[in-house]
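Limitations

Structures in this collection are predictions, not experimental determinations, and the ligand pose is part of the prediction. Treat each record accordingly. The example that follows, with TLP as the small molecule, is included so readers can see exactly what is and is not provided: the inputs are given verbatim, and the output is the predicted complex.
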Amino acid sequence: MKPIDLRSDTVTRPTPAMREAMAHAEVGDDVYGEDPTVNRLEAAAAARVGKEAAVFVPSGTMANQIAIRLHTHHGEVVLASQGAHVLRYEGGAASALAGVQITTIGTAGCFDADAVRAAYVPASNVHLAPTTLLVAEDTHNGAGGRIFPLAMLQGAVGAAQDLGMRTHLDGARLFDAEVASGVPAARIAERFDTVAFCFSKGLGAPVGSVLCGDEATILRARRLRKMLGGGMRQAGVLAAAALYALEHHVDRLAEDHIRARRLAEGIEKLGLPVHPAPETNMVMFDVADTMGFLRATRARELWINPTGPGRFRAVTHLDVGSADVDEALARLEEALTELRA
Ligand code: TLP
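Predicted complex:
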């Protein structure tokens, strides 16, 4: 039985055309700035999100953590959304590497200008840790691939900047937001000092993310990348896959979103609560018996990750076709019949 892997959009494998691009990539030593394919990728990525410069890094986690180091000093506070990736899924890096605390604000992955103002602490009060950085996440993983409403996002970023804070956008899935909302990625990222996005999620590349911002900031980011061990020599082989993804796999994200909606409808028909309604490529649903559901689905080669007790996330991606959605629903029905027997 062919496994259907809905654990994440990180599980995609490079397509034959992408492998072809990788095989023919021109390379050089990127730590010397001499890899032509990396240089091309960085220029294309920066232009795509309306920033001056970009640095290619191995992962979204490294991009976010470099940004946090860039914008803060030890002992400061970062404001981020409830369930933010930088807080929940980056191995405690913000405290371990940058020495900052994270305070969460807002609900369901979003926050407004008032929430930023209410949480803001100036450096003048010696008892309190000052808030110096705002991190937004769009789309929001923990909130089920939710798109941050643009007016709210711009209001919150504006408020942070008026207070003298720096701002970073974790746009691991920024192009899902662009394709689903019709708002260009550059517009979403416009007011942020830095923006990170990933090639290794829905865009289908095997490895890689970028951090984008102005020239001076990205120059500092290059030093931090080196410090963290992210200087990657003949990385053009990977950059070729990322470039291919940027050129060929953005528009097709719409297919993932259609499939996620169809999957959600099918899951609801099977009697499982789905919430929120999917806006992009994630379907969040509840099954009370977490371990039983995992066993019953795994036994049928249907792979879905829990995100907490009684809660699951199914993600559509490049390697999940329309027929796979039907097959996943059939396996799900069988698993639930067994569970309810
Ligand atoms: N998210 C992964 C897991 O870490 C949870 C996934 O399967 O969704 N920002 C956001 C919003 C992300 O969802 C992720 C990956 C990252 C950053 C980190 O990217 P990587 O995995 O490249 O370090």
